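P.,

For your records, the input lines for the assembly:
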Amino acid sequence: MDIFEKLMRLDRRWVFLFLIVVCVLTYAFDFEIPVLVEPEVEAIFDFVDTLPAGSVVMIPIDYDPGSLAELHPMTYAIVEQCWRKEIKLIFSALSQNSPGMADQAIRDISDSLKVEKEYNGVVYPPREIVNGVDYCFLGYKPYPAIIILSMGQNFRLPFPLDYYGTPLDSLPMMRNIQNYDDVACVIDISGTNSTDYWISYGQGRYGFPLAIGVTGVSTAQYYPFYGSGQIFGIMGGMLGAAQYEQLADNPGLAKDGMRVQWSAHMVIILFIILGNVGYFVSRYRARREERR
Amino acid sequence: MRKVTIIVMAAVIVLFLASWILKAGAFQGEHDHYIIRGFLVTFAAFLTLAVMSFLYQDNPYYKFAEHLFVGVSAAFWMCMGFWTTIVQNLVPRLSTSLADFFEVPQRAEGLNFFFYTPVILGILLLLRLSRKIGWISRWPLAFIVGTTAGLNFIRYLRSDFIKQISSTFVPLLGRDWEGIGAFFSNLDLSATGQLVMMVSNWVIFLGVFCGLIYFYFSREHKGVFGAGSRVGIWILMITFGASFGYTVMGRISLLVGRITFLFRDWLELI
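Structure tokens returned:
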């Protein structure tokens, strides 16, 4: 058996092992991969960046721990940008496991805001983030379509209490906020099909500006909605998160993970080439044998 | 039980305990509940490795992780549904004494007996568990199917059909067309330039048109029609390729996430 036949019969577990070893080794070396920013990500950053202090942005966090690696960096970059610019946030969670994700992000980012930082040449002083003043976390309710529709009438219909059990009317920032008319935009960060509901029942019914951050697997299916103007921006997977981190001048896990992405993609391309070489050479030899 | 299985299981238990002790020691001084935190990080690492071990072959550790995930998820979803929907949204609308019992605030609009309807439908749905009167559960099921179909019909018609069709009605010469002379004298090769917009609009037009031809089966795909159909299938293949590329990126991202957890949070090597 020559090398080409071996390539054709290579046990896939060797491919997995090689891929994991390369990813781990790449992580050990510190080098940066340039990230080119796409207009659909820049549109979200520019929209948020030009909002005046005191504006309200809604961020539905609709993903579970399975999508954490791709979507958590998006949440961290956007939420930190908003809070540094004194933009108020309404969080919701329309996926069963997502309240934990949102709660963790809120606590981590609140902590990081206690330190002075400089982003894109602007120095932001430390801030104390207060529940009910800087943000309101609505929590989880099942059946996204119904919840999205009823929030269009009033946030208090599906969420009489926030995630921590406080009535919404008791929260200072929610006193003058009734429904989507009072928010500047909705940025849905989702690892589920709730994005479909936000597009059709939310944006389609109430017409608010909607942007989305989705997993790599589902990115391609949402580009037609970007083309039709139903969403004004889209962040796709870890690459989209890395682009946003670059724009926000706030490198995090996504930008750090780009070098592993790069090396893993190189390994996959290498195996695709080797597999094809093995296939075509084997086929050529088989045909030559037949002719003899 | 085979001797090798026992040795592997013993090694796993020893490594788990060693990791727990070391992590708890590392967290001492940083966290109040350092023993529990050490256990949680070690257990998360064990579950990660147990799931990844499926890449080698199916094994009891993978099965344990899988079953634990399914069981915990089901219990978690049930509790979330009960406390966030039934207790918070339904109870205050039905009974003041029940609202006091669950310590949820009363609704400003008071009690609303209309909400007994979902209670009754919910109970009817549970009758599915009975063999004799299980057929009654078809009524609430019919209500759910009918409502969902009605809502989705409007949804698809508006956002996935009409909006998508209207967005393919694009100007083939690009916006602000002022003639060939003006086009060449102001030639702009940037992404927002007229040339790129024109090419993009032609791709959309031909892509949609040829894609539709491919799915038109009332005429044989021969001649010009066949050529359009072949272009259509190329467009579809490119779309699937883009989708698959994003899928690969997504899966590698998840691997990156787990590697970050194992080597940074657990082993603290990065």
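Two observations worth noting. Chain B touches chain A through 48 residues (CB under 8 Å). The mean pLDDT of chain B is 89.

Regards
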